[in-house]
Specification:
With 550 residues, this protein is mainly β. The protein has three domains: 34 residues; 392 residues, Neuraminidase, CATH 2.120.10; 106 residues, Immunoglobulins (Immunoglobulin-like), CATH 2.60.40. Helix content is 6%, strand content 47%. A hairpin with a 4-residue loop joins strand 31 and strand 32. The longest helix is centred in the first third of the chain and has 32 residues. It is elongated, with a radius of gyration of 28 Å.
Length: 550
């Protein structure tokens, strides 16, 4: 063999070896993104992947209230989530059989202190990403970015479009920022900056070209209504050949809604206050496009008043600029469970409204609960609702539910994503269209009992009925007496020997006797621990008064 041929063969071997190494490295990268930590079932829902400290700017990666991190496309659920392996937000896909989020490897924003709002319009995916700050402020170097992607149905993957991300969307940082697209193809965004409700839109059908952000307060007819507190937020929705912006104004104690007809002059906005009893900076909206009979919907939170959550609805044919056109429905009362951060979803196929929100369960834990109503006859039952994403881990802080802007269907079902700022982890759950989470509920009658006056060493018994008012088995884990005078009360029947299972609509009778040993007012607490996590322990107050023997 000649030296020349040997050298040629050697070069071929080196080239082949290098190609194999590159292929292996590339395959490793693909496998890194194509695999995922399997989600684990919890009390309600699934425990998902973790993320580093300060992701999202405040460890709450699924905030803020009006924003959507999920979308439904090609019979699959997708999400904007943090990829720890690449130190960036990526597009994730939900594997339905395992209920596990799969990292597709498609990057979004590398700014770890950012949050986003996702919009799938059937052709393009838009993800509006902004640096988070509790109080929106002008900071040009930290302005929002708009990412746009095209979807390949064959590979089931997204690719970033040329010319994106687009910049000059906003003037700085914001607590919340949302995006919508009108019937003319114009994209609109809104946010609060330096105490003003801001808007901006794309130019001449070019998603990458944007105008200069302006304050709605500069628009005649809106004026002072758009001067808000630093903690207020706004959201935008496309509806009935128009764009609507709703915002909270805690200074005025009102929610406002401004509308702009598609194609009209930039200053052609009209405003109304659909709810003016009191306001907090919590808003989530859904368009009537999800309701064939028409309607514009919003779920808002009040600050001091009862109820705590209100569903606002304006019918399609009503004049949305008249306050009386907006009907208010109570969703949740002002209770000790501190309901907060509600989102609204509409199941078009099942004709149902769903409201998901955070509740405090126990003294130091939080979970995601929900209520539902028929779309054609709106009524939300009293009480806390049902757990949707919850764990029995101590001091869990599951919060900030988020989902999609889209109408839900029989195929999509419902997926809600949440996060725990303490454990720095994602959580989610899935509900079939028209479905319902089965959960137990507990009531005790009487919930307070006064045995009255009773002579020393005398005995008086009282029955307490523990009933399961839910639609799943109630499990009593422990029953105990506590308090200053616990020795003067005794559980007399064997029902205290937990665990005890109580079927749906069945009850358990517990007998407690009072036998005062001294002459004084007595009190104790009967505590019933169960698998109803928002009401455990259920506390029954016991009172009595010891008297001298006759």
């Amino acid at each position: 063999m000649s030296t020349r041929n040997f050298q040629h063969d050697q070069n071929c071997i080196v080239a082949f070896t290098n190609a194999m190494i590159l292929s292996i490295v590339f395959l490793g990268i693909l496998l890194t993104f194509a695999t995922a930590q399997k989600s684990q079932p919890i009390y309600a829902g699934y425990r998902d992947i973790s993320y580093p400290e300060n992701t999202g700017g405040d460890n709450r990666t699924t905030g803020e209230k009006p924003e959507s991190k999920l979308w439904w496309n090609d019979n699959l659920w997708w999400a904007a989530m943090w990829s720890t392996g690449d130190s960036a937000y990526h597009i994730f896909r939900l594997d339905s059989p395992s209920q596990t989020w799969i990292d597709t490897g498609t990057p979004i924003d590398r700014r770890s202190d950012s949050k986003s709002d996702a919009l799938w319009d059937g052709q393009k995916l838009y993800i509006l990403s902004h640096v988070f700050h509790k109080k929106g402020a002008h900071a040009p170097k930290k302005g929002a970015k708009l990412f746009r992607y095209s979807y390949d149905t064959q590979t089931k993957s997204y690719a970033s479009d040329p010319g994106f991300p687009a910049a000059n969307i906003s003037g700085g940082v914001a607590e919340a920022m949302t995006i919508a697209k009108d019937t003319k193809g114009t994209l609109w965004v809104t946010y609060v900056e330096d105490g003003k409700v801001m808007i901006n839109h794309s130019l001449k059908g070019d998603d990458a070209r944007w105008g200069t952000p302006v304050s709605l307060a500069s628009v005649s007819g809106v004026d002072s209504a758009a001067h808000v507190a630093a903690d207020d937020i706004s959201t935008v929705v496309a509806f009935n050949h128009g764009i609507g912006v709703m915002w909270s104004n805690q200074n005025a104690g009102k929610f406002y809604f401004a509308a702009h007809e598609d194609g009209a002059d930039d200053n052609a906005w009209r405003v109304v206050s659909p709810y003016s009893l009191s306001t907090d900076d919590h808003i989530n909206m859904a368009s009537f496009s999800c309701d064939e009979n028409g309607g514009l919907y919003a779920v808002v939170k009040t600050l001091y008043n009862e109820p705590k959550f209100v569903l606002l609805k304006c019918d399609k044919d009503a004049d949305y600029l008249q306050p009386e056109s907006w009907k208010a429905y109570k969703v949740h009362g002002k209770e000790s469970t501190k309901p907060s951060r509600a989102i609204l979803l509409i199941d078009q196929s099942a004709r149902k409204l769903y409201v998901f929100y955070r509740l405090q369960v126990g003294k130091k834990s939080r979970a995601i609960y929900y209520k539902s109503s028929d779309l054609d006859s709106i009524y939300f039952p009293p009480g806390n609702g049902k757990p949707f994403i919850a764990t029995t881990e101590a001091k869990s802080q599951i919060n900030d539910p988020t989902s999609t802007k889209q109408c839900l269907t029989g195929q999509s079902g419902i997926v809600v994503l949440a996060s725990d700022k303490r454990r720095m982890r994602y959580y989610h759950n899935y509900l079939p269209s028209g479905g319902n989470i089965s959960a137990p509920n507990i009531s005790v009658s009487p919930a307070l009992f006064d045995y009255g006056d009773l002579a020393i060493n005398q005995t008086k018994k009282q029955e307490f009925i523990i009933k399961n008012n839910g639609d799943a088995t109630l499990k009593i884990k422990k029953i105990e007496l506590t308090g200053w005078n616990v020795d003067d009360f005794t559980i007399v029947n064997q029902s205290k020997n937990a665990p005890i299972s109580i079927p749906v609509d069945q009850s358990l009778t517990l007998r407690v006797k009072f036998h005062p040993a001294t002459m004084e007012t007595k009190s104790a607490t009967l505590k019933i621990y169960s698998n109803v996590i928002d009401r455990t322990p259920f506390k029954v107050t016991l009172l009595g008064n010891g008297k001298a023997k006759p």
